[in-house]
Amino acid sequence: MDIEQLRAYCLTKKGVTESFPFDQNTLVFKVMGKMFALANVDDFVSVNLKCEPEKAVELRELYEEVSPGYHMNKQHWNTVRVNEGVGDKLVYNWVDDSYDLIVQGLPKKLRDEMDSI
After folding, report:
1. Short-list 42, 48, 36, CA closest to 82
2. Rounded to two decimals, what is the model's pTM?
3. Which residue has better confidence, 25 or 114?
4. Which of 25, 69, 113, 117 makes the best surface tag, with the fewest CB within 10 Å?
């Protein structure tokens, strides 16, 4: 997987925007203004994804490519090293989980607004 594949996949999702709010290297994907994925565009070796706390710990124990979120709340975020053993399909599944987790937590007004997009 490369950064363009990740980018293309994230942008297929409803309500998603991309930006560089922190610096010119860190690409952030948001759904309705809430972050669900971050990656370095210059040195794409990993992606940070939101995760339920219990599942986050479970994934870290099952996959050596998954570690606590780098520069993130380590209870709720994982860093996934791509191209090191976990397949693209699994990474895309975790992107889906991160997106879904954020959407579920959105206020009803934003979910309704998203439905009209």
Report:
1. 48
2. 0.94
3. 25
4. 117
